[in-house]
Amino acid sequence: MSDIQPMLIDTATKIMKDICTKDLISNAEEGEFPQELWEALKETGMTSIGVSEESGGVGGDIKDAMSLLKVAGKFTAPIPLAETLLANWILGVARLPLKNSPLTLIPALKKDRITFKKVEDGWVVSGKAQYIPWARDVQDMVVFGKTSDGQQVVTTLSTTDCQINRGQNLAGEPRDEVHVPENLIENDRVAIVQNLTYEDICNRGALTRIALMAGALENALELTLTYANERTQFGRPIGKFQAVKQQLAVLTGEVMASGIAADSAVAAYENSGQNEEIAMAKIQVGEATKAVTNIAHQVHGAMGFTDEHPLHYSTRRLWSWQDEYGTDSEWADLLGDKILEEKSDVWSMFTESPRQLT
Amino acid sequence: MLKELELPIVDLPKETESLREDVRSFLSAELQNGSFETRCDSWLSGFSADFSRKLGERGWLGMTWPKKYGGHERTAFERFVVTEELLAAGAPVAAHWFADRQTGPLLLNYGTAYQRQTFLPKITRGELFFAIGLSEPNSGSDLASISTRAKKSGGQWVINGSKIWSSGAHHAHYIVVLLRTSSQGEKKHEGLSQMIVDLSASGVTVRPIYLMTGEHHFNEVIFEDVEISEDMIVGEVGNGWKQSMAELAYERSGPERFLSTYPLLSELINLLSETSSSDHAKNKIGKLASRLWTLRCMSLGVAGMLDKGESPDIAASLVKDLGTQFEKDVIDVARELIPSRPSMHAETKYETLLAEAILHAPGFTLRGGTTEILRSIITKGVGYNE
Ligand SMILES: Cc1cc2nc3c(=O)[nH]c(=O)nc-3n(C[C@H](O)[C@H](O)[C@H](O)COP(=O)(O)OP(=O)(O)OC[C@H]3O[C@@H](n4cnc5c(N)ncnc54)[C@H](O)[C@@H]3O)c2cc1C
After folding, report:
1. Which CATH number covers residue A264?
2. Does the record's keyword annotation contain Oxidoreductase (chain A) (predicted)?
3. What number is the ipTM of this complex?
4. Domains: count for chain A
5. What is the pTM of this model?
C-alpha cells in the first residue's frame, strides 16, 4: 500500500457519499453528466492516480487507483473514472500528454480494430468500435490500434472528429458506437508503443471492473442488511427469520471473498505484472454477482425491484460490469485451458510464481 | 467494507519457499516408498502413527510452540505452508491432527506448566494423540446444553456422562472433555469446564460408531465414575465455554476446510489433461481454481490476524462455510466431467478418490459447526441485532 491510500480512500468516500445521491445517479442515467462530481475529483488529482509523476500523473500506484475505483463502485459514481484512469495510464506509458478532462478509450472489445497508417505528414487513423464507455460525454478518446505491419500505436482523438451512435448497458451507462473516419493526425500526437498490447489493456480493464464490482457488492450487502433489520413482517424484522439469515450469510461470504480476491489480484499483478490472479478474481466477482444480486433482491422483496429503491443502481451495474473486459466464463476458459494444457497442478500454480495467460 | 469483513492480504514470506520444497520432497519420497497413498479427507481418515512420528522428527508438529515445550518457534505462516502441502498431497495426518491444531494451543493459552511439560513435547514428537470431546448424544449445535458432569469428591473430580462423534478416540491417548462442573445457572454457558481424560483410565469406554463406508473414525466415549485429579483441569473451573470457543477460530479457518477433496481435483486435472478436453471442462476447472485461490487468500488472511492475536470469528466462520461448499463442488464437477464408477475398492485412483469424497462429504458441512450455525454467527456478527 502506498502512503496516500488511507487518505485517498477517506477523501474519495467523503466526496462520493455526499455527491452521489439517488437523484444524481438517476439524472446521470437520463443523460446529465455530473460535472460537479467530476470537478471535485479532479481538484484532488484523482483522475490521474496510478500514473507516475514523471509521466504527468499525480503518482500513487495501481493499488491506489483500484481502491479509488472500489469506492466509486460502492457509491455508484456515474462518471468515466475507470476509463479515465485507464486512458491516462496508457498515455503515460506512451509518453503522451495526460488529460484532466473525462476520457474514454478505444477499443473496448477485442474484435474491434482501429488501424493506423503512416503518411508523409502524419498518421491516418480509421475504423469503428462498439461499446465505448461514455464516448458521448468526453471530449477526447485515447485510441489504441495497429498498423498493417503490426506496430502498436496510441493517440488521442477528439470526439468532434468522430461519429457517435448512442448505446447503453443494463445500468444505463453510455456504451456508444464510435466511427472514426479517416483522420489525419500530426506526428507529435502519435506514439508507437513497444510493450503495450491489447491484452495488457484488457488485463488492466478487467482489474478496474473487479474493483468497481467489489465496491458495488459491498453496497448491495449494506443495503440488504439495513433492510433486513428494518422491514417487519409477522411482527418482527425479517432478518430474525432463520431462512433469511441463512441467505444473508451466503451474501456476506461472497462479498467478503470478492473483497479479498480483488485486493489480492491487484497485489499479485503489481508484483508480477501477470494475469492469472486477475482471471481468478474476475471469476470470483462474477460468481458473487449471481449469488449477491439474487439474494439482495429476494430479501428486499418487491421493493428492491422498483425504480424507487436504490438497490438496482448497484445490481444493474454488477450485471453489466461482470461481462466487460472478459466475462467470467471467458476468463475461466482461459484459466482452465492453461491448467489442462500445461498439466499444471493447480496447487503449484498458486504456490509458485505465476505465469501469464495468453 | 464492514470492519468485520476486512481481511489482510498475506504474502507468504520468502523463507517459506525452501520449507515448501522440503515438505514436497519429503512427501514425494514417502509416496515413492509406499508409506502412504493419497486420500481425500486424509485429516480425518488417514491415520498413521508412523507418519506422524516422521513429521515430528522433521520439526513439523507444534511448529509455532515455544522451544522449551519441544516446539520450534516458527511462524504461523510456516505452519500454514506445511499444513497445506500435507493436505494437498492427501497425506495421513489424522493421528496428530487435533493435538497439533487444538490441544497444543489450548494448553499454551490456558494449561498449567505441568500440563505443558507433560503433554506438549510428546505431541511435537508425534507420539501423543488427543481427541476432542465436545458433542454429546443430546447436544450438537446447542453445545452449551451438554450434560456430562464432574463432581468434586475429596481431592478428585468424578466424571459421568458420554461424548459422541469423538473422531479418532480409539487411537488417541487422551481426550479433552467439556463438561459441567456446576449446575446450569441463568446462562447455559456458565459452569462449564475442560478436563483432560486418559482414555485408558478405568471407567472409560470407547465404543465404535462406523461410517457408511464401514470405516471406523467416530466413537462414543462413555464415562462412568471416572476419577480425575485436580491437575488435569485445563484453565479455570467454570471458564470452559470461553476456552472452547477460543479454539474454534483455529479449527474453522485452516486449509483443511477447503482442501479435503483437493486430491480428487488434482487427479481430475491429471486425467483431463491427458485427453483433449472440452471447453466446458476448461471452464469448470477455471472456476474451481478461482474459488480455491480465493479461499486460500481468505484463509491466509485469517491466519495473519490470528498471528497478531486478533480473533476473526466471523471471517473464520466464512472460510469454513465457503470452503466446505467448495469441497462438495469439486465432487459435482468431477462426476460431471468424467463418467466413472466410483467405489472404495475401485481399480483406478480417480474412482477411489471420488468414492471417498462422495461418502465423506456429508460430514464436511457438519464437523466443526454446521453450515446453519456458522451462518447464524455470521449474520449476528455483521450487524443483525438479535
Ligand atoms: C466428520 C465429523 C467429525 C466430528 N468430530 C468430532 C469430534 O472429534 N469431537 C466432537 O465433539 N464432535 C465431533 N463432531 C460432531 C460435530 O461437531 C457435530 O456433528 C455438529 O456440531 C452438529 O451437531 P449434531 O450432529 O448433533 O447435529 P444437530 O445439532 O442435531 O443438528 C441437526 C441439524 O439441525 C440444524 N440445526 C440445529 N440447531 C439449529 C439452529 N439453532 N438453527 C438452524 N439450524 C439448526 C443443524 O445445522 C443440522 O443441520 C464431528 C462431526 C463430524 C461430521
Report:
1. 1.20.140.10
2. yes
3. 0.87
4. 3
5. 0.92
